[in-house]
Design a protein that fits this description.
Blueprint lengths: L2 H22 L6 E5 L5 H10 L3 E4 L2 H10 L6 E4 L8 H7 L3 E5 L2 H14 L3 E7 L12 H14 L3 E8 L7 H17 L5 E4 L5 H6 L4 E4 L7
Parallel strand pairs: 1-2, 1-8, 2-3, 3-4, 4-5, 5-6, 6-7
Helix pairs in contact: 3-4
Bound molecules: pyridoxal-5'-phosphate (PLP).
Pyridoxal-5'-phosphate binds next to strand 8.
Length: about 220
């Protein structure tokens, strides 16, 4: 697609997000993070030129490479993947805008140590495994609230801003909806939480309907 065609395509995506958010309320703002994990830096740049500012990666190495290559652009980088303990320092070198996948207490404690040593803070979201799926990382709905508060009190350099979840892996829309509503109910219980990140290319409209205010669109934004 040339730039004009791509712009028309993105306008349509933006319209879909807008329609979904207005169904909730005119006051309900939804932020879109463009997930560039299947895309090149050139493609990120093209989307930037159309107006997109927030991008997400799920591998530290890719985040590092793309943020370096595009250093001159005023982009916001989100890390949305599972973080191995031995990659924490590499992530902190990039200093992302938001780490969306804080998925265990053990990781939080290790992250806290590294942040403290560098005298820096990091905005994070607690990842919720809302349908208790073996294949997914994150806190179970049963332990999420208690863990969130524990991290808030024990990890002062971790600035928790809310929750992130991937919708249940199911063809049944009701099952996916239930997983989003579970995450949203947890979000509502958290004091000071402002971000409820849920919804991807295949289910973002449903996620917004369930209260999401941050969606992570990969294949749809890059037309893959
Ligand atoms: C890949 C990924 C996305 C985007 O997925 P699409 O289906 O391509 O929109 C969103 N969130 C996470 C955590 C991902 O790993």
């Amino acid at each position: 697609m040339d730039t004009i065609e791509y712009k028309i395509y993105i306008d349509d995506v933006v319209r879909r997000v807008e329609t979904a958010r207005l169904r909730v309320s005119g006051h309900h703002i939804v932020k879109t993070v463009a997930v560039s994990k299947y895309s090149t830096s050139d493609e990120v740049k093209k989307l930037y030129e159309i107006g997109q500012r927030a991008f997400g990666e799920n591998k530290v190495q890719d985040l590092k490479e793309k943020s370096n290559e595009l250093e001159e652009l005023p982009l916001e980088w989100h890390f949305i993947g599972n973080l191995q303990k031995n990659k924490i320092n590499n992530l902190l070198d990039v200093n992302p805008t938001l780490f969306q996948a804080l998925d265990s207490l053990e990781l939080a404690l290790e992250l806290q140590k590294k942040l403290q040593a560098r005298d820096m803070t990091l905005d994070c979201l607690l990842q919720i495994n809302s349908a208790n799926e073996e294949s997914k990382h994150g806190f179970t709905p049963e332990t999420a609230i208690e863990s969130y508060k524990k991290i808030q009190s024990e990890c002062p350099n971790i600035k928790l801003k809310g929750v992130m979840s991937i919708g249940a892996h199911s063809e049944d829309k009701e099952v996916v909806k239930k997983s989003f509503l579970t995450t949203y109910a947890i979000y509502k219980e958290l004091p000071d939480a402002t971000i409820c990140s849920m919804g991807m290319s295949g289910d973002f409209e449903l996620a917004i309907e369930c209260g999401s205010n941050m969606i992570r669109l990969g294949s749809l934004m890059f037309n893959k």
